[in-house]
Amino acid sequence: MPHGGGPHYSRGVDKKLEQALNLLLESERAGAVALEMLIKQASQDELKQFLVGARAEEQKTADQLVGLIIGAGGKPSAKTGPFAAKVSALAGLRERLDLMYRGQEWVARKVEEALAVAPKRGAIREFLESMAKRHRAEVEWGRAEVIRLLGANGS
Q1: Could you tell me how far CA 111 lies from the centroid of its own chain?
Q2: Distance between CA 63 and CA 57 in Å, rounded?
Q3: Is position 3 within any domain?
Q4: For 137-151, how does the pLDDT look when each residue is reduced to its tens digit (9 = 90+)?
Q5: pTM, 2 dp
Q6: What 8-state DSSP symbol labels residue 92?
Q7: If pLDDT is split at 50, 70 and 90, which confidence band does 91 have?
């Protein structure tokens, strides 16, 4: 069983799937970088803790994607996506956080696209299904939590 992926991976990962997984990997890395910047900008302890947790989740997901890509016989990208630069180009914390959650919506759509080319069963499918559910939930919960933590003054 090459690369620990089982017999259906013996010829390497499907290139479309590898590209989709690498796009997600680059995006999760960019999310972690953007969150690190937001952590430094946030002044409220509770908001910082929320962002630290979100950053840890982004990094964990990136690490898991690396493992899945390698396990399937693919090559993980070393790149970080352009999203962090888009977030840093905005002036205020509220605007940056809003873009972060629009980015979660984008990732959720990309996960659905990856599911369309993923094997019908196995570790990659299970991971992507879980990732899709998590991102959809994070969009709604995260936006509401940020609004609550920032309050009406936008600090």
Answers
A1: 9
A2: 10
A3: no
A4: 877 776 677 677 677
A5: 0.85
A6: S
A7: confident
Say if 4 falls within a structural domain: no
Rounded to whole angstroms, the Cα distance separating 105 from 84 reads 15
User: Residue 120 — φ and ψ, nearest 5°?
Assistant: -70, -15
Q: Do residues 13 and 75 touch, judged by C-beta distance below 8 A?
A: no
pLDDT value of position 142: 67
The CA distance from 76 to 151, in Å, is 40
Report pLDDT digits (tens) over 53-67. Answer: 999 999 999 999 999
Take residue 117 and report the two structure tokens written for it.
């080319």
Interatomic CA distance for residues 106 and 39, integer angstroms: 22
DSSP state, 118? S
**Per the domain annotation, does 155 fall within a domain?**
no
Say which CATH number the domain at 95 has: 1.20.1260.10
